[in-house]
Structure formats: C-alpha cells, structure tokens
Design a protein that fits this description.
The protein is an alpha/beta fold. Helix content is 41%, strand content 11%. The chain contains 11 helices and 8 strands.
Amino acid sequence: MTTPKSPEISKSPEISETPEISESPETPTPPADIRLVVLDMAGTTVADDGLVERAFAHAATALGVTPGSSEHTDQLAYVRATMGESKISVFRHLFGTEPRAQRANTAFETAYGELVDGGLIAPVPGAREAIEELCSRGCAVVLTTGFARVTQDAILAALGWQDLVPLTLCPADAGGRGRPYPDMVLEAFLRTRAADAVQQTAVVGDTAYDMTSGVRAGAGLVAGVLTGAHGEDALRAAGAGHVLPSVAALPDLLCGPAREGTG
C-alpha cells in the first residue's frame, strides 16, 4: 500500500549546541506551583540510540516490506514523524487491517525487547537525578510511553528504575489511546491526586506528539527536550512553551533559585 508522505521534522541539534533553556519572547514565567510532572521515556529520560527504527525494520520485514524499497523508506519517514504516538496506532495506519497491525506490533515489541535485553539503552545523562530532585521537592513524577506495558516494564527493569517513581503509564492504562491524545496526562492527574487543577501539571517530552498531548490536557507547563526525535521548531509548533537541552535542566526551570530550599 502507498503510505502518505510524512511532514518534515527538523533534526535535533546536539545538546552542547543548546546550553540554555530556550524560550520565545512571549513565553510566560513557569507556573510557581507545579505539583505533577508527566515525563516521556524514550528520547526524554531514556536514550535508546535509534532502537525504535531498528525494531521497526524487523516489524516491516515480518509484514513483507522489503528493506530499502520506496515503501520501506516512506514508512520509516512516517515512523520518525510520529515518534511518541502509540505504536499500535502507527501500525494501524501503515498496514491497514487490524490483524496486520497486530502482527507488526508483536514483531516490533519482540525486537525492541531483545535490543533492550542486550543492554542497548541507558538513562539520558542526569535524568535519574532530575527525577529524584523533583520528587524531593514534593512533585509527583509519572513516566509515560507509547510502548506496550511489556516493553515499558523491560525498559524499567533494564535501567533498575522499577521503584524510581510510584506510577508509570502506557496507552493501555489510559483506555488505549496514547499521544497525541491527552489521556495519559489526565490519567496521571486522576490517579496521583497530586494536583488540584491540571494547570499544576507539567508535561515534558522529545516529540511534537508529547507537546500536543500536554496542550490538549490543559497542562500549565509544556516543555520539549532536544535529546530525542524532534527539533526545536517542531516542538514549538506543537505547543512547547519551553525547550530544554535535556531533562536534566527541568528542576531549575520548575524550581529555580527563588524556590531553592523549599520542599
């Protein structure tokens, strides 16, 4: 089948090229009372070094798509453009029927899990420390993903993060709809009861779909990071009010010097 061409997505610059938090002139001051932080995993807190594309290649081959063909190239471009979306949703778009989409998803999850078990993922530098600092300052932190639960659990186990935060969510935990829908953000809000209003929620991720989900949920702060799939232009176009070199800069954005010493 012919796959529609994906939108242009700018590549992320190296972290060293963006040492400061980037804000547009009209960006408001970050809310002073963020109580819930919803963090994406792959590309935001977890560096997977292109494993999504490698696992997709296995899935496409399982569905009879020839590597290097124009069909494969178009599909890979769509996968890159929709990073952050629920993977089963991506495969439904690419392969049409539900049985084919489920076959592709199973092949993808199996391949990704094997790559994770092979030690090919690592935390984004400073990610664990940032999460621990946010928790120490009284924020509830929830980790979210577009992967299935089995893959999310494999990543958490590989990193030793099973007990890092009290709650992790995948699309199935929020009724089956992943990003760009707001469901996982709102599920985090409802389950944690950490915030009195959605405006006390921060959503942080590396893709345009992360930004869209935060905007749609009504989050008080939506921030992009430059350690993953999409660059600053794409993140801002999708609603990012702040763009950070990495999640390691998040505690300073949320807490800042004025709030140091509070907990």
